[in-house]
Amino acid sequence: MSQFNVATTRLLSLLPNCSSAAHIAQIQAHLITQNLHSITTVASAFISASKTLNLLHLAHLHILTQLPTPHVFTCNSLIRAFSHSHIPHIPLSIYTHMTRTSIAPNNYTFPILFKSLADFRDLRQGQCLHTHVVKLGQWSDIYVLNSALDLYASCGRMDLCRKVFDEMPVRDVVSWTGLIKGYRRLGKYDDALIAFEQMQYAGVAPNAVTMVNALAACASFGALEMGVWIHECIRREGWELDVKLGTALIDMYGTCGRIEEALVVFDGMEEKNTFTWNALIKGFALAKSGEEAVWWFGRMEQERFGADEVTLVQVLCACSHSGLVDVGRQIFCSLINGKYGFLPSVKHYACMIDLLARAGCLEEAVKCLREMSYQPTKAILGSLLAAGQTHGDLPLSEFAAAKLVELEPGNSAYYVLLSNLYAEMGRWNDVEKVRAMMKERDLKKELGCSSTEREFCNQVDQLVAQ
Questions:
Q1: Helix axis angle, 362-371 relative to 378-390, nearest 10°?
Q2: 322 in helix, strand or coil?
């Protein structure tokens, strides 16, 4: 018995020091010859070593072929290890092996599986697993229910998420946070805030994750009063403004037009990251304070925080709103030349084209459009359309409107835009062609479409900023 313990202990100490697949294979052979491979602690150590070296397939093969009836703890460890990999079918295959070999899953098995399926948005398999859980009588466990709730929220099925939530015998902070987060992800910000209020009435104390999601919903919904109330709660409870919570507050204040309060929060944070700086710069961009946005961008670079794609979108957007053409050109040129470690995306081109178009640099805007390797988006074409109308360049407006028709052939508003432009240019034959095209495609001019151009141009800023 003492020899058995010594051998087991020695193997456990050797496994973490493995540096190659050959080392693991050698130990695996010794495990089998000494009949130690079925020990749960050894199997778990084998899984950990394989995970460290990205050789989980060896652990998977070992558990399924060398252990006739592995312990449920071992299976759970293997499922958890694979849930962090990019192979979504393996956790389910392990669970299938468990059912075939009569290894009873426990309340730790299902949360891991639901989490894995949520990461890959696998709704169909999630519903199948849901059925298994009910049949096995595990549906009353709060950890299982919370993980199922998160799966449905991740898949955008808030109807199923809400059904699980409403049927829960007990709800904790994780349950409420999952519901709020799910509504926010789906863009149902009012429902997210209603759920947050209901959480208060239920007497469940929120945590930092709850507050971050509630603040994000406040920012998107423009619920400044609720956001201020949340900030007061954070102060009252004496919570530390960590990176996530502080950034959420800055984004809420900046998005709701309270940039001064956003600056106070920013200055009070001990730790910041790129997302924190982006939230502040975004606030200045929305406030149309381009000079301040550019100044803070410069300070961000001085303090050696790496700018990402979002940073450049926000800065270029700020330049566009404030007419900082030369500054925008300089930043965009640096982006093209690889200063920031990535090339401009279609959003960066959209901001730059909007900047040039607003400033009346129409030829340069069209040149920028032709030089980009992306297909023009609705935002880009909207910028050119608005600029053409503002600066009296009807051919440019015609070009943009025609491209919008190609982009969304089922949108009658664009046909009306194009028809109105042709009428303004006196090109009545083209007006008739557009009307014939609408008739052929069974498109009708909606009531109020005469104001479509003005409404569309008013939305251009929002499109570019997205």
A1: 160
A2: helix
Asked whether the whole model's pTM tops 0.85, one would answer no
Q: Note the pLDDT tens digit of each residue in 109-122.
A: 999 999 989 988 99
Q: Which two tokens stand for residue 292?
A: 């301040």
Q: Return mean pLDDT, the chain.
A: 84
Classify 50 as helix, strand or coil. helix
Q: Which residues of 358-394 are buried (b: 16+ CB within 10 A; e: fewer)?
A: bbebbebbbebbeebeeebbbbbbbbbbbbbbeeebe
236/33: higher pLDDT: 236
Domain residue ranges in the chain: 1-104, 171-271
**In 3D, which of 213, 205, 153 has the Cα closest to residue 189?**
213
User: In 3-state terms, what secondary structure has residue 325?
Assistant: helix
Q: What is the pLDDT of residue 391?
A: 87
Largest CA distance in the chain: 100
**pLDDT tens track for 119-138:** 889 999 999 999 999 999 88
User: What would be the CATH architecture of the domain defined by 171-271?
Assistant: Alpha Horseshoe (1.25)
Q: What Å distances lie between residue 258 and 248, 293, 327, CA to CA?
A: 13, 15, 25
Residue type, 127: Q
Identity of residue 71: H
First to last CA, the chain: 67
Cα 314–chain centre separation = 17
pLDDT given for residue 58 in this prediction: 52
Neighbouring CB atoms inside 10 A of 114's CB total 27
Q: Tokens for 6?
A: 């010594």
Listed in sequence order, the residues at least 6 apart from 228 whose beta carbon sits closer than 8 Å to its beta carbon are: none
Q: In this structure, are residues 114 and 147 in contact, taking their beta carbons and an 8 Å threshold?
A: yes
Confidence of residue 427 (pLDDT cuts 50, 70, 90): confident
Per-residue pLDDT tens for 433-464?
A: 888 888 888 877 654 444 444 444 444 344 43
